[in-house]
Amino acid sequence: MTSPRNQFRVAATSAELAQFRRDAWRLYQPVAPVAVEAFGQTWQLRPGLTFTPFANAVRCTAHCAFCSEELQRYDGHQLTAKRLIDDYPAYFARLQAVLRPFRGLPLGLSLSGLEATAEPQWLRELLASLGAAEAAGSVFDEKVLYTNGSGFVLSPDLAPALQDFGLTRLELSRCHDDEAVNQQIMRFNRNQPMRHNAVYAATVRTLHQHVAVKNSCILTREGIASLPDVERYLAWAAGLGVRRVVFRELSRLEGSYLPNRFTEWIEAQRVPIEPLLAAVVPTLEEPRPGWQYAGSTFGYYYYNEHYRWQGTDVIFETSSYPALQAANATGVLQKLILHSDGTLAGDWDPDSHVLSRLDAPAAAPQP
């Protein structure tokens, strides 16, 4: 079974599962690209690629120790995370313009970047603008919001707005079931109530009334690091009504980024996924009690294993930034990103794989 974005297979034997784990994303088979005329030239697009309007209206409400927006490649130029959107009408006019050439082409919508809920008015206008694009012929066959959830505390109207928009799911970041440990990793601003477990729990229960909630937990040595940790976290999440959880290994950098305190923290805190997978299902014939293997997903730079545990869908994920960059280097666009300076690019670096800079809205440096 496959989707426009990845390939799903179920290992039939323990030997095949071992191969999946060994080769991971390298087993992904690229599909034939789609040619699209846009901005004066022909572009090759990976079918099912996602569109990201980079969320950067205000600074993030947390300062996660693993933040990918603080990483800079050796061949990188600038970071979108360092610029703010300060002209909403111009930005949303630009959004409509960059989507126009891709009308009728199914795209995934990935609402990510910094924290989309941190500026509720921007998110409301974003949803309205994207809704207008859909009415004009844009097709978003999957809509996902990646968030730390902070904005829902003071702006609970965002949840029904996302429901009305038709959000497929909300991926809610939480790195530990103990709020003190979670704070050491996610580092919410002091004025953010979401740092407290009681507020988090109440928010999750409210979100359930409007959208599908999937917990996202980054594996770290000081946080969730072992299978008993995983099972404790799952029991805690289930107590909040969460029935889908992903545990992500910190993305493998493999020396492709300039050293800084974030790369140092990532490498020091990395919890490799392989020992956890071996503990869950050493072989298909002898899984850990309570765990059932459901299949594996292969993406162009990531690999997932899917399980069921006491009524909860559990995913373990590993990914490689060098593999992502290698896919970008093929000349086939893997993703579309509208950066906060108005640049439409096929890369997280707004100066790389640029499709268009026309009519770019003004953006202001962060203080």
UniProtKB/TrEMBL annotation:
Taxonomically, the superkingdom here is Bacteria
What is this protein's name?
Radical SAM protein
